[in-house]
Amino acid sequence: MRIGLFTDTYTPDINGVVTSIVTLKNALEKQGHAVFVVTNQPSIISTTYEDGVLRLPGVELKFLYGYVLSSPLHIQAQAVIEEMELDVIHVHSEFGIGMFARVVARNLHLPLISTYHTTYEDYTHYVNLLGLKSVDQLSRKAVAKMSRMFSKSAQVVIAPSDKTKKMLLGYDIKKEIAVIPTGLDLDRFKVRNEEELKGIREKYNIDPETSLFVYIGRLAKEKSIDVVIEAFAVLLKRDVNAKLMIVGGGPSDSELEIQAHKLGIADKVIFVGPVSSDQVVNYYHVANAFISASLTETQGLTYIEALACGLCVFARPDKPLEGIIEDDITGYLFTSSEEFADKAYQFITADENKKKELHDTALSYAQTYDSKLFADRVLEVYQKGIDVYFGKATVLSVDDRGEEIYLSLETKSGVETMIIDPMIQERREIEVGSVMSRNELNEIEDDQIVYEAYQLALSRIGVRDYTSFEMAEYLREKRDLTQEQIDIIISLLEKRRFIDDERYFRDKIEYHREQMRGNHRIVEDLTKRGFDIDKIQDALEDEDYDDYLARATKRSESFLRTVKDGSTRQREAKLGQHLQRQGFDFNVINDVIRNMEDPYSEGDEYDSLRAVMLKSFERYSKRYDDNETRNRVVKNALSRGYNYDMIAKVMEELKDED
C-alpha cells in the first residue's frame, strides 16, 4: 500500500504520538509498504519535502508546550500529495494538519482512518484559567461535539485502549472503533550502552548503590508529576538511598522545581530537561524503576517502553494500564503517597531474585507490543477502511476472448469492465461470483501492466542479450512503470534464465578479449551496461600481463597488415592511436611498439617515400620554381617521418631520371 500519515507533531518532537507514528512508519516500511508523512514546522512561509516527509507552514504556540498549529488549507501541498498516489490516509490529529487531511481525503477521494491519541477533556484547564465548573462542563461538551464531527469523515476510528474507546462511545460516535495499542520497536530498547550510562551517572552524581526512579515525558499539569514528587518525599523519610530523575520539558518545569525545594528534597530530584529521541532509551536503562502518576493517558506508551527495558513500573490505577501493570508482577500500583512509599521501600529492599523476577516479567509483557503485530493490526484496519469507502466488486461474468479475458464487475459505482490476460485470471482463480476488494482490483491492474511489459521484454531479448540494468532502462523508456514493477519483471526474467548478469559478464569479457580489445574498452562497455567498476577491474586483474600483451600484439599484427604504405614512424604512430582506441594503456602500447617485428621492409618504405615525393613534385611544380619545389617536397617527406638520408637518396634518383 501507499500510506499517508498526517500529524501535527513529528520528529524532532518527543512525545507519545510521535513515538507511535515513527514506530508504525518503520514497521510498515519493513513490510514493503510506501509510507509518507505530512506534518508541519514552526515557520509561516516554509514548505519542505524530503525523504517522504512533507512539512507545511505552522505557528508555534509557546503557551501549549511548543505545539505547532497549521492552517487546514494548503493548495500547493495538495498537488504534492496527489503525486504520492496514496491508497489511504491515516490522520493522527484533529486540528490543523488533521483538518487538512480531511480536506485532502475528500478532494482526492481517499478513505480516511483516524487514530484518537489525546483525551482532550483532560486538557480543558488550558482554556479554563479560572477553574470555573461551568466552563469545564461547557469545554467537555465542546470536546464531545468536536470528536463526533471529526469522526464523521473517517471510515474507521482507532483507539489505543479500551478506556479511549469507551470515552468515544460516550461521545455518541457511531463509526467502527478498533482498539489497537501502539507497538514498540523492541530491538531499540534491548541495547544497553554502558558507556553512555556511565556518563549519565557521573554527570548527575548517581552512585551504583542508589535506587534511581525515573519519570520520562512532558512536564504538564495533566501528567500529575507533582503527585510523583510528593510521594517521593514520603519515601525519602524511610531513610533509603534513592533519587528521582525527571526527564522532559514543558510548562510545569519551574513549578515542579519549586515544589522539590519546598519539600526539602531538591538534592534528591534531578531535572534533566528534554533529551533527543535517540537518547531516551539510555535514561530508562540507567534507572531501576519507572514512576508516573498520570491518569490522562490513552495508552501509557512510556509505561510499555519502561517494561521493554526491564524496569519495575510504579503507577496509579487507570484503565489503560489494566493487563500491563500488575501489582507485584510487573510493578506496583499506588493510590496515595504512603502506599507508594510502602511499595517502593519493598522494592528497594527486595532480594536480587525478586528484582530479577520483576525484570524478566516486564520484558515478557512488553513482547505483546511488538511493532510488527502493531503494523499488522493497523493494516487490517486500512483494508477495512478501503472496503467501506470503495465497496467490493463482484464478478458478474467472465468472457474468454482468446488472448484476452473480459470481466464484468458489479461495484459500488455501477457495472464496470476489466480486460486482463488469461494467465492472470488463471493465477488469481477469478470466476463468476468472486468478490474482490479495491486493493485486489488495483493489484490485478498492476499485474496486467507487468504482464504486458514482460512480454515486451521477452520480444526484446529475442533480438540480443540484455543485462538487468539495460532491460530496466529499456522498460523505463518504453513503459510508465514503477521501480517495484520493473523489479518484478527483472526477477521473472532472471528466474527463467532469460537474463543472467553473471553469465553475461563473463561472456562479454571473453568476447572483448577474442576481439583483441584492451581493458579500458572493456571497462567502458561493461560500466555502460550497469556493472560495478570495481567488479570489472577485479575480473580484469586476474589476467596475466604476458597474455594481455600477447592480445595487444595480435591486434597490432592484424592492424599493420591493413597499412600498406607510410614511413616507419608513421606506422608506429598509427598503430599507437589504433591500440589506444581499442582500450590499451600506454605501457602496453610502448611495449608492443618496442618489441614489434613489422614485416614492412626498408624497401617497402623506400617505395612508399618515392611515391609520396613524386606526388609532391607533381603538386608543387605547378606553383613554384624548381628550387622551391624541391624544398617543399623534402619538408613534406620529413613531416611524414621519413629518414633524411632516404629522402636524399630518392631525390638524387629522381634528379637522375629527369
UniProtKB/TrEMBL annotation:
It comes from the Bacteria. The gene is recX. The lineage of its organism: Bacteria, Bacillati, Bacillota, Erysipelotrichia, Erysipelotrichales. GO terms for molecular function: hexosyltransferase activity. It comes from Erysipelothrix inopinata. Residues 14-188 form the Glycosyltransferase subfamily 4-like N-terminal domain. This is Regulatory protein RecX. It is found in: Cytoplasm. Belongs to the RecX family. Keywords: Cytoplasm. Its main location: cytoplasm. Gene3D superfamilies: Glycogen Phosphorylase B (3.40.50.2000), Winged helix-like DNA-binding domain superfamily/Winged helix DNA-binding domain (1.10.10.10). Residues 546-593, 604-651 form the RecX third three-helical domain. One of its GO terms (biological process) is regulation of DNA repair. Modulates RecA activity. The keyword Cytoplasm applies. Residues 200-355 form the Glycosyl transferase family domain. One of its GO terms (cellular component) is cytoplasm.
